[in-house]
Task: structure prediction
Amino acid sequence: MQFHATSQSNASPPAQARVHPLFEPSTNTWQFIVADPTSKEAVVIDPVLDQGPLTSQYAGISGDVEMKSKISTTAADHIVNVVVEMGYTIVRILETRVGSQTATSAAWYLRMQLLERRGRAPEIDVGKSLAGVQRMFERKYGAREGGY
Result:
């Protein structure tokens, strides 16, 4: 995303970011696309893979039962469709979840789909790298800590 410094005397009000909240019911999580309406550059926050219900499956001769969950890309594909429909260029994928939730992340899948469909593979930021993105939102949109 491009930023331009302005002096205090001629500073215009910050542009309003366009936020697309997307709820994924199988994981009970929210995903977001946050876009600059002027440049059409955007970030995706916490993309997830869908998880179906747990099913049991016999594991061979031992008779052990293995619990599995079917994973699909419906939620991530919906993100790609919104990005294409709105004409956005995704510059970053932000991962704010840690631990066991990272197993359901669609970041790498989404990155490859965006490369294929939009010709650009965005960076994936995790953990500490998010501090810089928060500072960028504060400068660009006047958002303060806790108000993202």
User: Anything to note?
Assistant: Residues 2-7 have pLDDT under 50 and may be disordered. The radius of gyration is 19 Å. DSSP finds three helices and seven strands in the chain.
